[in-house]
Amino acid sequence: MLTKRIIPCLDIKNGRTVKGVNFEDLRDAGDPVELAEIYAKSGADELVFLDISATEEKRKTLANLVRRVAEKVNIPFTVGGGISSVEDVDILLKNGADKVSVNSSAVKNPDLVNELAAKFGSQCITVAIDAKEINGEWMVHLVGGKVPTDLNLFQWAKEVEERGAGEILFTSMNNDGTKAGFANKALAVLSSELNIPVIASGGAGNMQHFCDTFIEGKADAALAASVFHFKEIEIKDLKEELRRNGVEVRL
Amino acid sequence: MNIVIIDYGAGNIQSIKFAIKRLGYDAILSSNAEEIRLADKVIFPGVGEASSAMKMLKSTGLDKVIPTLKQPVLGICLGMQLMCTYCEEGDTDGLGIFHANVVKFDNKLKVPQIGWNRIYDLKSELFTGISEQEFVYLVHSFYVKECEETIASTEYGVEYTSAIQKDNFYGVQFHPEKSSDAGEKILENFLKAT
């Protein structure tokens, strides 16, 4: 049986991790490669690197980082953040990324999803969607949730699936940073309406939240950052707890 | 050891090269028939779409080279599927090494299957030191039906072939290069095969 995935997310700026991390065994707390290796050993199923730098050197720095991660890490990883062309994706995949995620660029140019799926295959194209519930309707937002669009979450997700996305990474802006749990109602709708896997993101605060998002939210994977970076939750403990609750995981 | 990864423009082969490097060996990428024939071990990777990958193999003549190889050959993911008789994806004949067809998962399932699933009924030296029900990483929408050459099975709505072997030819549906320590062990077992 296919297991549910636990995915730590690392924010990257100029080739270094941002947001503090609390790992006493890290020699260099800002080195994404070292952190990635630790997560791989501790039972993470996948990793996501989200590049938030905006310098001209960005593309080269990111490609170098991807290469260094691919050299060391023996689990799959996705790279996202500012990817806007076939060429961007080509560079990242050639350097060893397994998947890429596109967000704003897909909203601005939906045909990009078709182009990427046709050239590289759906299996390596994740579409990330940030959405906020406003007056009972889930609306897609851009630039980390700052800029609203008139796209409905469920319609947009269905559209990108039809255009060839292999997976959806849904971040609820209402839940992100709250540590009060994932947006399970919206996730359950998304998961039942789509025929591709859905990754839940935004709101992880404790182990019960992960159980809930897999059971109530019907998520295929759950992504979180700070609860892992600050060691509030150990991945091994989390997986044991999930298994006790009847959720199939890799242990 | 002279390890060649067949380079025919199919996807992420860097990861396989790095995984082999972690095991202490170097692999070269090549599309040259002579270089491939002279290798001790050949790895046939692949991600993407079956019919366009077959077209690339035909345009380079590699479709004639691969089935005649005598050394251990390991097809990974789409590589394994292309070594079969027929692929439903793009309605294309494969290389005909393995006597099985490749068909799409039921559309009641989420497709592609992405993530970690178990392998069982292990029947090859490829799995020396690997436990029944070990987890491996898979990403695919089409699967190889079970057949006499199946050496490992996986369940995703249906029981299907996650590894296959005929003589010196091996195929794995999962990505050993991304399947943590177990994957590296399987890759190492292949590199030790004779």
TrEMBL record, chain A:
Its EC number is 4.3.2.10. GO terms for cellular component: cytoplasm. InterPro entries: Aldolase_TIM, His_biosynth, HisF, IGPS_HisA/HisF, RibuloseP-bd_barrel. It catalyses: 5-[(5-phospho-1-deoxy-D-ribulos-1-ylimino)methylamino]-1-(5-phospho-beta-D-ribosyl)imidazole-4-carboxamide + L-glutamine = D-erythro-1-(imidazol-4-yl)glycerol 3-phosphate + 5-amino-1-(5-phospho-beta-D-ribosyl)imidazole-4-carboxamide + L-glutamate + H(+). The active site is at D11, D130. One of its GO terms (biological process) is L-histidine biosynthetic process. Signal peptide: none annotated. GO terms for molecular function: imidazoleglycerol-phosphate synthase activity; lyase activity. CDD domains: HisF. Keywords: Amino-acid biosynthesis, Cytoplasm, Histidine biosynthesis, Lyase. Gene3D superfamilies: Aldolase class I (3.20.20.70). It is found in: Cytoplasm. The keyword Amino-acid biosynthesis applies. The keyword S-adenosyl-L-methionine does not apply. Pathway: Amino-acid biosynthesis; L-histidine biosynthesis; L-histidine from 5-phospho-alpha-D-ribose 1-diphosphate: step 5/9. IGPS catalyzes the conversion of PRFAR and glutamine to IGP, AICAR and glutamate. The HisF subunit catalyzes the cyclization activity that produces IGP and AICAR from PRFAR using the ammonia provided by the HisH subunit. Belongs to the HisA/HisF family. Heterodimer of HisH and HisF. NCBIfam families: hisF. This is Imidazole glycerol phosphate synthase subunit HisF.
TrEMBL record, chain B:
Gene3D superfamilies: 3.40.50.880. Pfam families: GATase. Keywords: Amino-acid biosynthesis, Cytoplasm, Glutamine amidotransferase, Histidine biosynthesis, Hydrolase, Lyase. It is found in: Cytoplasm. SUPFAM superfamilies: Class I glutamine amidotransferase-like (SSF52317). CDD domains: GATase1_IGP_Synthase. Pathway: Amino-acid biosynthesis; L-histidine biosynthesis; L-histidine from 5-phospho-alpha-D-ribose 1-diphosphate: step 5/9. Its EC number is 4.3.2.10, 3.5.1.2. One of its GO terms (molecular function) is glutaminase activity. Heterodimer of HisH and HisF. IGPS catalyzes the conversion of PRFAR and glutamine to IGP, AICAR and glutamate. The HisH subunit catalyzes the hydrolysis of glutamine to glutamate and ammonia as part of the synthesis of IGP and AICAR. The resulting ammonia molecule is channeled to the active site of HisF. PANTHER family: IMIDAZOLE GLYCEROL PHOSPHATE SYNTHASE SUBUNIT HISH. This is Imidazole glycerol phosphate synthase subunit HisH. The gene is hisH.
